[in-house]
UniProtKB/TrEMBL annotation:
Protein name per Swiss-Prot or TrEMBL: Uncharacterized protein
Pfam families associated with the record: COesterase
InterPro entries for this protein: AB_hydrolase_fold, CarbesteraseB
Keyword line: Glycoprotein
Superkingdom, natural source: Eukaryota
The organism's taxonomic lineage, starting at the top: Eukaryota, Metazoa, Ecdysozoa, Arthropoda, Crustacea
Length: 167
């Protein structure tokens, strides 16, 4: 759970914010998002046991394979069938985009945030939006509360004192 907490804080939330800002900027350049979360026995850093998911940057192992794979893995290691499949899918997507500007998945829409899953070959909900509300909504609101004299949520109604009834 701690790994997910820090992953959300340092990777997922900033990435989601950047993607949304770029998508809403009104630019002509569309934004495309993919997720690499393939759980391999060996990652780009040479870890043979991976309990936390795909390590940051491991997709490059597949993108620039087999040279990068050979350089980061124990001698004699061979990619599995699934690793070869992911490699082919990732290389095809990047190559088609570089050659012709073709993206084989949907453009990012901030109103319906989705991304392409390399593992599943389909569009999926983007970056756990519900979980990221801690970083995108709640913590900024708490930070704002610390900058005001009022203990109440900024913009909310101030409490009113009711006169006490004589008893």
């Amino acid at each position: 759970m701690l790994v997910k907490f820090f992953g959300d804080a340092f990777f997922h939330a900033p990435t989601a914010a950047t993607i949304n800002l770029l998508s809403q900027a009104g630019r002509d350049a569309p934004v495309y998002v993919y997720r690499y979360n393939f759980l391999s026995n060996i990652d780009a850093y040479g870890n043979t046991v991976n309990f936390t998911g795909a390590a940051h940057g491991t997709d490059f192992l597949h993108l620039f394979s087999p040279a990068m794979y050979a350089a980061t893995q124990p001698p004699g290691s061979q990619p599995t069938f699934m690793e070869r499949s992911i490699t082919g899918r990732l290389q095809t997507r990047w190559t088609e985009f570089a050659k012709a500007g073709l993206n084989l998945w949907e453009r990012h829409d901030p109103q319906d945030p989705q991304m392409y899953s390399l593992e599943g070959g389909q569009m999926i909900p983007s970056l756990g939006q519900r979980e990221l509300t801690l970083w995108s909504d709640l913590l900024p609101m708490v930070a704002q509360m610390g900058k005001t004299d009022s203990p109440w949520v900024p913009g909310g109604p101030e409490p009113t004192a009711k006169p006490s009834k004589p008893g």
